[in-house]
Structures are given as structure tokens and as C-alpha cells.
């Protein structure tokens, strides 16, 4: 074995694929019973509808290198992601656009009029100086829209005062003064035509790659554990960085999700793939209806059944799957301490969403892995 990779998510698989193509023998271990990390999906058995098991995953990128790379393993549908939100029992389009603004104010503002209004409402903060999510949100869209669509949703999702969250979290959402309600701004987007798992399996399908599932790196009863491999073979580690160091610098805070899945005896529950719930009195953040991600599969998906998944968000304990880095000021200090510790680890390379404690989309995880391969490992 030339390289041991801990974690078979997009980061680990990209490194594995590149190393195998370069003639290296690679072993990938994962503590889960399947490959693919959080991008893994499976068909719901009763309906055959593909369900993303760890929350809906939409692929999008503006990076030509990443787009060329991912197209080696899958074709993409022409799905374009659009999200709606329910506030006080009325449905509005997201991200906040001219349609949302006019519906909210019951008005017919032109782009310039809407901009002038938002500027007036946002007067108290300047987006450039915004120190946290709340200031940034108000600076971008003004207090009334912030309170309707962002404040309570964010509080449900992060269970952290928006004043303690970094401004970047909200920068992910564009604000537009047109009626364009595409959720993403990227050049390319789509869903893998034959599903995420087929794509992930193709990345791992090489005689130089061995995959061992249900294998935890910290379980010393299995041979490829931390104690027996560090310093013996180069390691790419994509699990949680705080866990690697046995929480020596304290726990970094993560958010986890609970999914409540139901098969309903109706053809169409909500008419769209994702409906957010902006208000505090609804306990879940959003409902996914998976058949709408693949309208091109209409001839093989049932017309009298549908799969919906309610998503609830909460802080993760050590026993939960860590999904989103919360990234408070304390977390950032902790992360710096872990980065110092990481420098002392001989030939261990920390990568991916968990290994670097960063909010990485799939294209970012793949792009970062390609860079790590080219610049450090190759
Ligand atoms: P992961 O996919 O988390 O893989 C890490 C792997 O390491 C896991 O399989 C884990 O089991 C394994 N592991 C951890 N510890 C150990 C251990 N001790 N021993 C062995 N194995 C271990 N991105 C998008 O581009 N679009 C989206 O719409 C999108 N939606 C998302 C929705 C949710 C709810 C979440 C959580 C993420 C979403 N993402 C989305 C991000 C996407 O999941 C990540 O970019 C991608 O999974 C990152 O891959 P990764 O390899 O870094 O991490
Ligand atoms: N957000 C919000 N209201 C919404 C959708 C998003 O306030 O209806 C905020 C929220 O703080 C969230 C951030 O925008 O964490 C990024 O949203 P995105 O949909 O990208 O989150 P993800 O899909 O990664 O959970």
C-alpha cells in the first residue's frame, strides 16, 4: 500500500482515483457500511425514488477543472435548483429576488425602486463592515425581509444567535433585483443521471483501489488504525479533525440533522423539490420531495406515491454525525490550535469538510482534493 485514505467521501475518493491513475496502490477505509460520505444516495425500496440519505445534494460549480473532472465519471441532468419558502402560510420564491420583495411588500417595484427601498431599510449596517450573520443579513436585504426569511430559519438551523455566526454563511445566498430565482449562481449545475452512488462507485472502480467499509480508523482492533499506520504509510485523513487529536484542544461545534422520511399515497405533495419553512413555530427547517429532483424519470417513478423528508437541525454530540461546522469565534481559535498540532503529524494530510472544519460544497471538496494531489502528494 502506498497511501491510506480515511474516509470515502468526495475528498477521499478524488485522492484515491488520482493516486490509482498514477499507478499507486491505495486503501480507502470508511467507518460507514457504504462509500461516498454524505453524498451517498439509495433508491427508496417501495417507490424506487432516489433519496439522498444525508440530505439533498445539488451539484454546481463554476470551476472548469472540476467540471471536466466530474464529467469523467457521470453525465448530469439539466436540473436547475429552485427553492421556495413558506412564511405565515404564504409561499415566496428564494433566494430573495424581485419576486420575493414585491410579494412581501405587495408592490410592483422596478429593480431600481426595490434597490432604493432595501438600501433605505438596510441603512443601519454596511455589508462591507458586517461583523456577523445578522449585520450582514440586514445590510443585504433590510430588517423586515431579514426578520421574515432569515432570522428564524437561521436560528432553527444553527441554534446559535445570528450575531455569533460568521457573515459568510449568509453570503452563500445571492440577493437579486431580477425575477431570476435560480438558487445557485454557478456556470454548471445538474444531478448525476444514474444517481450519486453510481458516480461514487465509478470513482473507486480501479484495480489499484481497495475499499474497506465498516472500518473505524480509531478502532485499534482492526489493522489499519491510527496507532499502527501514522509514520508507516502516508495518510489522507478526512474525518473530524478534533476527533483525530482525541479532542486535546476541546471539541469543535458541529450541527447535525435528523431526517424524518415518509412515503405518502399521493402523486405530488408540494409541487417542488425543496420547501423551506421560515417561521419559528414550524419545528423543521425544510421538506424535500425527492421525485422532483428527477423530472426526467417520470416514466419510471410512481404517479400515486411520493417520498418526503422533513429536516430538523440541532447541535451534534460526539455520538452524532457531524454535518456542518458551526464556526463560532471559539471554534476558530480551536481550529488554529488543531492546525498547529496537524503540522506535527508525520505524513498525515488533513482534508475535506470534516478534516479542515470548513463548509465545503462537493465541487470545493473535489477541487481541494485535486490541488492536494497535484501540489503535495503526487
Ligand atoms: P464526507 O462526505 O463527510 O466524507 C467523510 C467520510 O469520512 C465519511 O464517509 C465518514 O464516514 C468517514 N469517516 C469519518 N471518520 C472516520 C473514521 N474514524 N474512520 C473511518 N472513516 C471515517 N454540497 C454540494 O455541493 N451541494 C449540496 O447541495 C450539498 N448539500 C449538503 C447537504 C448536507 C445535509 C450536508 C451535510 C452536506 C451537503 N453538501 C453539499 C456538502 C457535501 O456533502 C460535501 O462537500 C462532501 O460530502 C464533502 O466530502 P468529504 O469527503 O469532505 O466529506
Ligand atoms: N437561509 C435563510 N433562510 C432560508 C435559506 C437560507 O436564512 O430560507 C440562510 C441560513 O442561515 C443558511 C444560509 O442561508 O444557513 C445558507 O443557506 P443554504 O440553503 O445554502 O444552506 P444549506 O443548504 O447548506 O443548508
Automatic annotation (TrEMBL):
UniProt-recorded name of the protein: UDP-galactopyranose mutase
Species this protein is from: Microbacterium enclense
Keyword entries, A-Z: FAD, Flavoprotein, Isomerase
Record carries keyword Chloroplast: no
Domain UDP-galactopyranose mutase C-terminal: residue ranges: 148-359
Cellular component GO terms, alphabetical: cytosol
InterPro entries in UniProt: UDP-GALP_mutase (IPR004379), UDP-GalPyranose_mutase_C (IPR015899)
The UniProt record lists the keyword Acyltransferase: no
Domain of life: Bacteria
GO molecular function: flavin adenine dinucleotide binding; UDP-galactopyranose mutase activity
Coiled-coil blocks: none
NCBIfam families on file: UDP-GALP_mutase
Protein family (similarity comment): Belongs to the UDP-galactopyranose/dTDP-fucopyranose mutase family.
N-terminal signal peptide: none
Cofactors required: FAD
Database matches in PANTHER family: UDP-GALACTOPYRANOSE MUTASE
Amino acid at each position: 500500500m502506498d497511501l491510506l485514505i480515511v474516509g470515502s467521501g468526495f475528498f477521499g475518493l478524488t485522492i484515491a482515483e488520482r493516486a490509482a491513475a498514477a499507478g499507486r496502490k491505495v486503501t480507502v477505509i470508511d467507518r460507514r457500511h457504504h462509500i461516498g460520505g454524505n453524498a451517498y444516495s439509495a433508491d427508496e425500496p417501495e417507490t424506487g425514488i432516489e433519496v439522498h440519505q444525508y440530505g439533498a445534494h445539488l451539484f454546481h460549480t463554476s470551476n472548469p477543472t472540476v467540471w471536466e473532472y466530474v464529467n469523467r465519471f457521470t453525465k448530469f441532468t439539466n436540473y436547475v435548483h429552485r427553492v421556495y419558502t413558506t412564511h405565515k402560510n404564504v409561499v415566496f420564491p428564494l433566494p430573495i429576488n424581485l419576486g420575493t420583495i414585491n410579494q412581501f411588500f405587495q408592490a410592483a417595484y422596478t429593480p431600481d425602486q426595490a434597490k432604493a427601498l432595501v438600501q433605505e431599510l438596510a441603512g443601519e449596517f454596511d455589508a462591507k463592515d458586517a461583523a456577523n450573520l445578522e449585520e450582514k443579513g440586514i445590510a443585504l436585504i433590510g430588517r423586515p425581509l431579514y426578520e421574515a426569511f432569515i432570522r428564524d430559519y437561521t436560528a432553527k438551523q444553527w441554534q446559535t444567535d445570528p450575531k455569533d455566526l460568521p457573515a459568510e454563511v449568509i453570503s452563500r445566498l445571492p440577493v437579486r433585483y431580477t425575477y431570476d430565482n435560480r438558487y445557485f449562481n454557478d456556470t454548471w449545475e445538474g444531478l448525476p443521471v444514474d444517481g450519486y452512488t453510481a458516480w461514487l462507485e465509478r470513482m473507486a472502480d480501479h484495480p489499484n483501489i481497495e475499499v474497506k467499509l465498516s472500518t473505524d480508523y480509531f478502532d485499534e482492533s482492526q489493522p489499519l488504525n491510527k496507532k499502527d499506520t501514522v509514520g508507516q504509510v502516508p495518510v489522507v485523513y478526512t474525518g473530524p479533525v478534533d476527533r483525530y487529536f482525541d479532542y486535546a484542544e476541546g471539541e469543535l461545534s458541529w450541527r447535525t440533522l435528523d431526517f424524518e422520511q415518509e412515503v405518502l399515497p399521493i402523486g405530488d405533495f408540494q409541487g417542488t423539490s425543496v420547501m423551506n419553512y421560515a417561521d419559528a413555530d414550524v419545528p423543521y427547517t425544510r421538506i424535500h420531495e425527492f421525485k422532483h429532483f428527477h423530472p426526467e424519470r417520470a416514466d419510471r417513478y410512481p404517479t400515486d406515491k411520493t417520498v418526503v423528508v422533513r429536516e430538523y437541525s440541532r447541535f451534534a454530540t460526539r455520538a452524532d454525525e457531524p454535518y456542518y461546522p458551526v464556526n463560532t469565534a471559539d471554534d476558530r481559535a480551536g481550529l488554529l490550535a488543531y492546525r498547529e498540532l496537524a503540522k506535527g503529524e508525520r505524513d498525515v494530510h488533513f482534508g475535506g469538510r470534516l478534516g479542515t472544519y470548513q463548509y465545503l460544497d462537493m465541487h470545493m471538496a473535489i477541487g481541494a482534493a485535486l490541488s492536494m494531489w497535484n501540489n503535495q502528494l503526487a
